[in-house]
Amino acid sequence: MSEQNLIHLKAPGCWINDPNGFIYFQGMYHLFYQCFPYSTQWGRMHWGHAVSRDLVIWEHKGIALYPTKINDRSGCFSGSAVEHNGKLYLFYTGVNYTEEDPDNINCCINDTFTAAQMRITSEDGFHFDNIRDKITVIPPIEDQSIGCKNHTRDPKVWRGKDAWYMILGSTAEKEGRVLLYRSGDLEHWTFQSFAEHHGWGWGWECPDYFEVENQGVLIFSPMEFLKTEKLYRAVAICTLAQFDETVCEMKIPDSYQMLDYGLDLYAPQSTIDAQGRRIVIAWARMPEAVEGKWNGMFCMPRVVEVKGDHVYFRPHPDVAGRFTRPIQDPSEAGKGGYLLRTELSEGEVFSIGGYALQYRDGKFCADRSAVFAGHDEIQCRFETPRLHNGCHLAIYVDSNLIEVYVNDGEYVLTNVVYGLSNEIRGDRYVLFAIED
Ligand code: FRU
Predict the structure, then answer these.
(1) What are φ and ψ of residue 54, in 5° steps?
(2) What CA–CA distance (Å, rounded) separates 434 from 369?
(3) Which residues are catalytic?
(4) Which end of the chain is more exposed for a tag (fewer CB within 10 A), N or C?
(5) C-alpha pair distances (Å), 21 with each of 49, 82, 306, 432
(6) Residues 401-436: pLDDT tens digits?
(7) Which of 166, 172, 42 is nearest to 95 (CA)?
(8) Centre of ligand 1 from the C-alpha of residue 205, in Å
(9) Any ligand 1 atom below 6 A from CB of 77
(10) Are 52 and 58 in contact (CB under 8 A)?
(11) Within 10 A of 257 (CB to CB), how many other CB atoms are there?
(12) 292: burial class by Cβ within 10 Å (0-12, 13-18, 19+)?
């Protein structure tokens, strides 16, 4: 498989979800992801694999991880990558269903599965020995005061000053939490502590902790976080948490931001880019396969910066910097889509192919109702918190994903859309595409 994608990595003719094992390794970006290769629906999880030299052109590399062990026989769930002594180490959650759904053995019933944290390595980032090289590093948790035997998953590993650290998403007594582990050798891990926040959903998925200029940031995806009738009650949020390595404890504050105010992005994962910036990428949830063929894609990588108590997410300069070809009409854009720049004044409306935008009551608002037909179960109208410096927009438009960066990354609002037209309604805007 050597299919190429531009700007946004898309599912290679199947189902994909979370980004996994995102890393710049041996001169290339590797992005693994949750994948069910046989269908456009979620199923027994494998890790798909794509690579890029520039974060713009992505090449699919097929399946990297697949179930082989008792502990991952029902799926290789999400996880992360680190480099150590020139080698790639992948950590992931292996699941084992105790009760398979007889009508679809790729799913379980009654939440009956166990979750173990597992590891596999690679010399070059491309070859994995799924039979001989996998080990279980943390068996299913037996002590329920620590966390749940099945809903504990998504190891994110990082190098601290004196040791390796792992953060896991988990749940106990119907509240979400993260578990923190320490290791000296990437093989033996000991539980250190947990951190939680009351009222933020029953279970937490895909935690990711990192520091940007000494400020700790925790990104995670709590389930049942939003109290809404609509789907997607699970959303990705970020907080200015602080991790104290000496005692291996994390403090989670009361305030949080949405990772993205379009609420479609989920399970974000960060890494360090070739220049040392902290960047994050996330899965765009899609209610329907495009042309019945593929389901799931990733947003553009975003650079994370913290100023005061606010986290900014800006389009990666290596990607944004490619939109240099001025065009007059969206039809002149190629496969990479186009960038639309504009500034709205209070009350002004704008439409991009049926996707309606407005600057209203000091907030940026979007309405995708006209380009999301048949999905009433999912929210269609979104808004950012109040803006303080006008409403300057950099909007990246792809056939099925619109990413709106408001005021240079103060807020981002990204939406999945279907059936976008080439018609733009609005004043004072400029369009750019990437060079062919
Ligand atoms: C988040 C998630 C993860 C899990 C994976 C399974 O979308 O539920 O917690 O590891 O997807 O595909």
Answers:
(1) -130, 5
(2) 28
(3) 18
(4) C
(5) 9, 8, 24, 32
(6) 999 999 999 999 999 999 999 999 999 999 999 997
(7) 42
(8) 7
(9) yes
(10) yes
(11) 19
(12) exposed
